[in-house]
Specification:
The protein is mainly alpha-helical. The protein has six helices and no strands. About 60% of the residues lie in helices and about 0% in strands. α2 (about 30-45) packs across α5 (about 100-115).
Amino acid sequence: MLSQERRGFEKEYTEGSFWQKLLKFAQRAGIEVVEKTLMLYYAAQSPHTPLWAKTTIYGALGYFISTVDAIPDVVPGVGFSDDYGVLVAALATVAFYIDAEVKEKAANKLRDWFNLTPEQLSERKKTMVPPRIEEPPE
């Protein structure tokens, strides 16, 4: 992963803990949070993403994984809002490395997990302003 000493939240990141948290909380976190985590994850896997950007990504994903949050993830309705802010900031920082391939991989996973057709996902993205966190369906 990273060849340098890891500091901060990037030390929380492992691929196993990432997938475990994402699979466990995908429905509760909502499509917006999941989309951002997947785009960052796939960008970090790209050989075109430089080390500084991967460090930023692993820090943001480490924050998502961490049990130490500004707002605990279990708080209904707002539990992932701090994670969302960190993920968006990381995306803005590494935006150059979020290419079409990264976006497509994330979209494919979103369609599978949220049982959406490509049209539904595209339509939903048009209505994502402002972003909101959804509770899992009952």
